[in-house]
Amino acid sequence: MTERFTGNFTQQEPIPDEGIEAALQVLRHGRLHRYNVAEGEIAETALLEQEFAAFTGARFCLAVASGGYAMATALRAVGVKPGDTVLSNAFTLAPVPGAIASLGAQVVFVGVTEDLTIDLDDLSAKIGQARVLLLSHMRGHICDMDALMAICDAAGVTVIEDCAHTMGGGWNGVASGRHGVMAAYSCQTYKHMNSGEGGLLITDDEELAARAVMLSGSYMLYDRHLAAPGPEVFERIKYDTPNISGRMDNLRAAILRPQLQSLDAQVARWNERYQMIEAGLRDTPGLQVIERHEAEQYVGSSIQMLLLDWSADKIGEVIARCDARGVELKWFGGEEPVGFTSTYRSWRYANAPLLPDSDRVLAGIVDMRVPLTFSLDDCALISRIIRAEVSAVYQSQV
User: For the chain: N or C, fewer Cβ within 10 A?
Assistant: First the structure.
């Protein structure tokens, strides 16, 4: 009998009971706005910022409305203005170039390797074209950060990290987000902590932190932050930093705080599932697994594979055959954007030249979510289905 998977690729685990109770307390007292606190009360949002700063080892943290807002705020804080150019990955999701475009800046795309990380040779060739790199750790793949920072530091290029897919990960023992001057994280439902929407921004730079707080819409209530600089820093910047409101509220912060406490354990669970699927896919004819560097501490909340140099029709056939057996695969190589999948060619506002070497890689990327609602047996079944369908289509080509 042909095996079929019956699970749900978009079903998340429930919010922890502690988060539900904390959310109910916020709902009962009604003080959802982060600056609406009772006498002697510390807002849930301020506590989350303090705890996330401690988790990452950063001096300062700001909770905001989304990961995309966090990236745009970081770009504004470092001084990106309309007409500026910003380097970024060709392999990423639309909110990354979107954050750049929202400032009226122009993205310069840097190529992708078969490891699905930024092409450091291409970065070296383009490093003089901008003074800021918005680095996307796309789908949780972290490049050689020591080498990347050496390139950027030598050229005087400021690095902002998009850690939407690497919260809880790292490189060579350094937490993801701690190499650049600022880092943005997402708390959207399909990320590593779930508040539906939400974002976090960290930095060690006191002036950048103060600017981010003012940009997020603190008015003159910045003293209610626990993970922010002192009032003397705000005095230097408060009159020339615009309010572009994008605060996180206490309800979402209450939901997130218990999730942060269990994040390390959740990362271990994701990686168990990822490794089970990866082991089942390894050595599948025609399929290339993404090899991980020994210095990379990844979070396997999704898995990617390459059907390199396959035709679009054959990749489509694999996706359709897997879908018929209950396994949902997404393809990043299509000519038209579908759902959340798209390529740099889709974002016409970016006006980017083609990248033939990267196009070859992008055309072969197949992507799959790995929810924690899957058991290890589920993961083994999923890998068997993918392996069987890829093998069948591959054999039909040779």
Answer: N
**DSSP one-letter code for 297:** E
pLDDT digits (tens, 9 = 90+) for 89-99: 999 999 999 99
Q: Please give the structure tokens belonging to residue 322.
A: 């897997």
CA-to-CA dists, residue 90 to 4, 119, 330, angstroms: 35, 9, 18
What does pTM read for this prediction? 0.97
- pLDDT digits 0-9 by tens, 160-200: 999 999 999 999 999 999 999 999 999 999 999 999 999 99
Is the pLDDT confidence value at 398 over 80? Answer: no
Q: Where are the domains of the chain?
A: 17-261, 263-397
CATH superfamily for domain 263-397: Aspartate Aminotransferase, domain 1 (3.90.1150.10)
Mean pLDDT, the chain, rounded, equals: 97
Query: Contact 10/2 with Cβ under 8 angstroms?
Result: no
Q: Tell me what pLDDT residue 397 has.
A: 80
Counting Cα atoms < 13 Å in the Cβ hemisphere of 319 gives 22
Q: What is the reported pLDDT for 200?
A: 98
The number of beta carbons lying within 10 Å of the beta carbon of residue 140 is: 27
Which residues lie across from 118 on neighbouring strands?
112
CB-based burial, 356-378: b 16+ in 10 Å, e otherwise: eebbebbbbbbbbbbbeebeeeb
CA torsion 118-119-120-121 (nearest 10°) is -160
Question: In this structure, what are the phi and psi dihedrals at residue 24, rounded to the nearest 5 degrees?
Answer: -65, -40
Nearest residue to 70 via CA among 58, 79, 62: 62
Instruction: Tell me which fold the domain 17-261 belongs to.
Output: Aspartate Aminotransferase; domain 2 (3.40.640)
How many residues in the chain? 398
